[in-house]
Every structure is written in C-alpha cells, then in structure tokens.
Amino acid sequence: MEKIVVSGGNHLEGTIAVSGAKNASLPIIAASLLAEGESRLFDIPDLADVTTICEVITRLGARVRREGQGLIISAEGFRAYEAPYEYVRKMRASFLVMGPLLARLGQARIPLPGGCAIGTRPIDLHIKGFEALGAKIVLGQGFIEAEADRLTGTKIYLDFPSVGATENIMMAASLARGQTVIENAAAEPEIVDLANYLNAMGARIKGAGTRVIRIEGVEKLSGTSHVVIPDRIEAGTYMVAAAISCGDVRVTNVIVEHLKPVIAKLREAGVEIYEEDRGVRVVGTRKLKAVDIKTLPYPGFPTDMQAQFMALLTIAEGTSVITETVFENRFMHADEFRRMGANIKLEGRTAVVKGVPKLTAAPVKATDLRAGAAMIIAGLAAQGETEVSGVEHIRRGYEDIVGKLQGLGANIRWAGQ
Q1: What is the mean pLDDT of residues 330-358?
Q2: Are residues 128 and 107 in the same domain?
C-alpha cells in the first residue's frame, strides 16, 4: 500500500511556488464544452481530479491534449450527453458537466457523483436551478436525466451560496434565452475566474464575486485562452506547514487578497506574516496561541482549511474552538490526530482543541483530501516517523506535495510505491 512517511522536527525554510487552483480548473475544463473552437488553458495542475474531469469530457466527445502546464481542448461537434459512471463516481465535480450539456445539447444524463466523504453534499440546488431555467428533470436509479429545447433565463434564489450550484447554473445560463439572475450566489474567487473565462468566450456575465450574478444569454461561445488563478487552499496549506514547523518560508504565486482569513488567523496564533507582491512570507513561532475558527462561505474562513488549522492548534497554548458551518461530518480527521496525542473533543459541529506540548508520530489515515494534507502537517511537528495512508485523496488536490515540501527541507517521502 502506498503511503507518505514524514519525520518531524525539521524547520521548513526556502521558497515554494503554488500551482493553479484545482477548484477553478475543474469548472473551467467543464465550461470548455460550451465553446465552439479550441480553448487553451494555462496553469492547470497535474492532479488526479483534473485527469478525471478530462476523461469525462473526452468520453463526451471533446479532444483534450496536455502541453506542459496547460491544456488544449476542442469540443467542436461533440454529441454525447451521457457522462461515464466510472469517472463520475470518483469525483463530485464531474457533475459540473451537466450545465454545459444542457446548454449546448439540450439534454444530459449524469450518474450521481462521488468524491470526498464529507456529509451529504446535496445536489438539489443544482437541480432546482436547472428546473427554474426550464429543464425537465427525471431522477432515476443512481442517475439524473435532464432535457430542455432551450433554456430560458429567470431569477434563481439559492437557499445556500453553493459554489458548485452557482457554477453549474452560470454555465447553463450563458447560452439561455434572456437574462438569468442568481441571488445568494457563491462569491468565491473560483466563481470569478470561471466568469472571466466565460466572458472571454463571449458570455455576458456581471456581478461574479458578489451575492447577485446577472447573466445575459448569448447565441454561441467561442474558444479562447485563459490562465487559471493560483490555488489559495494549497497556499494556505503550505503557510500552516511553515507555521507548525517554526519555519521561515516564502510562498509565491499567490493572490494575497484571497488569503485574508487565513492570514488573519495565523497572525492571531502568533505567526508572523509579511505580505508581498504575489507572495507571502511566513515566520513561525515556538509559542503558538489558541484561536477560535468558524468556517463560512467566502470571504469567511474556508472550510477547506479547517483540518490544516486543527493540526496547528493541537500544539497551541490554550483551548481553541473550531465550528464547522459549511459541511456536516467534516471532523473525521480528529480521531487521527488523537492517535498522535492530540486532545480534541467533538460536540456536533464544534471541535474543542486543547493544546498539548507535543505530538507523537503514529500511523494515520487521510479520510479526505484536506485531512490528508493536515496529517502531513501534523507529522512535520510530531516526534518520530508518521505514516500517512489513504494518499489517493492527497493526489486528488495537491500537485507534487512531497517534492515541494522536500524542497523546503522537510523529511518526507513516498513509501510502498
């Protein structure tokens, strides 16, 4: 079985470059199905999830070619509307092809998606949005079918500012007849990046990054070139790794504005952060302080950084309270930290973390993508050799995490390959 082995105690030092954002790349690759002609996408990370979404659109009839850190995609003349189960079951984001299929072909048949085991993560908001645009939806045994002669713009209110639903509806509405207004839309930077890509293709989208997005439907979209934004979660992960190792690390290729809640909480914990042009310098401290965290939709503290901060707070002085409001069942990593000597009590959607003087290495398992990164972070501070299994989760969202941390002086390696 493949594992990542981390020996704690080394102070991380040096410079680490952040890859393109996974959570921007996936919807943008799906959106390429909307375009007539060829699209060139740059700074696309080499990840398992990216490979999966590329396999999905290839099976639908698109042509995909990787060139260096980019992709060349042509969806000219594709006609297939049924996404392959063997790929959709691997990854929830595969469901993002439904909006483009409905808009371009007028029909879609999608198996129910898979991905990380974090609560229920329902797709009902996507379905309500498509129905509001005029699609007829049939829920079958393990799949969803949708049909629409042509989607028609309307006003859609999201009960929760879901990132995936906002993206899917925005893509579908870009070729709909008339105006679509999405109220209580997600405002994440990845939404803005997708809107910028769609607008470059000829869409007419305003308000991305706010709670109200307006889309004027157009007749067609054309292939274009686009550079994906840096991955703010990868950046935050390496910032926490630097902090827990009492290191001195410069994280480059970041948009500092996207990291404000992470920067604020690290500073509150006693970590020194120096903001630079397209980068941040993180200088750790031997006396981490407890902080309280509440996950929220952007611009609040990101749920995708919750596990990494829990790792940090296990050795902070005092008691920290972490409240998870975005996803249920997202504290599965707490049991793994306890194996390393952490003092964590769970009460519903709240975790109470009492700092301990040190963590001790133990065999641990990545229960999901971000928990996997958090296990590595804990291993950097633990005494002894920590073995992290379940590394298939980590491959989904971190490009060369072992090589990048080795470049900072971490004692980390793959084992059992």
Answers
A1: 97
A2: yes
